[in-house]
Amino acid sequence: MITDNYTMGRGEAWFAPFSDPVAKTLPEGGGFRFLGNVPTFNLSIAADTYQHYKSTRGIREKDLTVTLQANRTATITAEDISADNIALFFMGTTATVSQAASTGNSETFGNVMPGNKYQVGISATAPTGLRGLLNPVLKAGTTTLVVGTDYVIDPVRGTFDILIGGAVPASGSSVTLTYDLSATTRVQSISGASTVSGALKFVSYNAVGDNIDYFMPYVTMSPNGSFALIADTLQALPLTIGVQVLGNQAALYADGQPVAGV
């Protein structure tokens, strides 16, 4: 009697970056990080072959097929918009940006124009500026500008907008912001120029069918497509996974569930 082993796939993707990318070694046990909800995970395998045809008589007949190489890739979309997943898409890294509390800070902005937004604290070492402003006061010369009339400020992000029709003339003016800083930390994803390598584990929790878990000892993660910052659907990060062979290990392993006592 034949049983149809139909499967409707569901599961979780877990990634462990190599602790040593050169030696391609993992921390003990892997230390796999959950990639969050992955609504699509497609595995593709294609073989390049050499085909020989015998032409001794009549029509040519194929008498030999040799597999020259196998190309294994996967594509996923990750809906978990975390700093680590963004770094995978950026081909970069994450860092924790720490800011110490301070008082009596001052920064002058020259030729500010109504309608424009200005970021406090931009520098070569802090290209995205400062955050967490306290007690901000904006002046044009000796005149204290009025919040909501001359400007609006976002102290959390460390920005202010000069309002059209306020005291700052359309021709521009120099303004000075005095402020204190709160102690803050934030996680920052920074773009790079190299793919991230590691091991990938897919743990099945199928809606229908036997659960089969997949393991790839050596993969590279790289961006594949568009990341919609504005859309009427949930954001998703498209990633391509290159599946390679590591040492004497296979490129792919598919584990069925253990049966006790067998």
Largest sheet: 8 strands, antiparallel
Unreliable spans: none
Beta-strand content estimate: over 45%
Instruction: Specify the structural class.
Output: mainly beta
H-E order: EEEEHEEEEEEEEEEEEE
Q: What is the rounded Rg?
A: 28 Å
Count of domains: 2
Total number of strands: 17
**Which descriptor suits the 3D outline?**
elongated
- The average pLDDT score comes to 95
Measured distance between first and last alpha carbons: 22 Å
Helix content: under 10%
State the helix count. Answer: 1
Can you tell me about this structure?
The protein is mainly β and 262 residues long. Helices cover 3% and strands 49% of the residues. A hairpin with a 4-residue loop joins β10 and β11 (159-162). It has 2 domains: 11-93 and 191-256; 101-182, no CATH class. The strands form 4 sheets. Strands 1, 2, 3, 4, 14, 15, 16 and 17 form an 8-stranded antiparallel β-sheet that branches.
Give a quick rundown of the structure.
The protein is mainly β and 262 residues long. The chain contains one helix and 17 strands.
Keywords:
single chain, eight-stranded antiparallel β-sheet, 262 residues, elongated, 17 strands, mainly beta, 1 helix
How would the blueprint of this fold be written?
Blueprint: E1 11-17, E2 33-34, E3 40-54, E4 61-78, H1 83-90, E5 93-99, E6 102-112, E7 117-119, E8 133-140, E9 143-144, E10 151-154, E11 159-162, E12 173-181, E13 184-190, E14 196-204, E15 212-223, E16 237-243, E17 253-256
Antiparallel strand pairs: 1-2, 1-14, 3-4, 4-16, 5-13, 6-12, 7-11, 8-9, 8-12, 10-11, 14-15, 15-16, 15-17
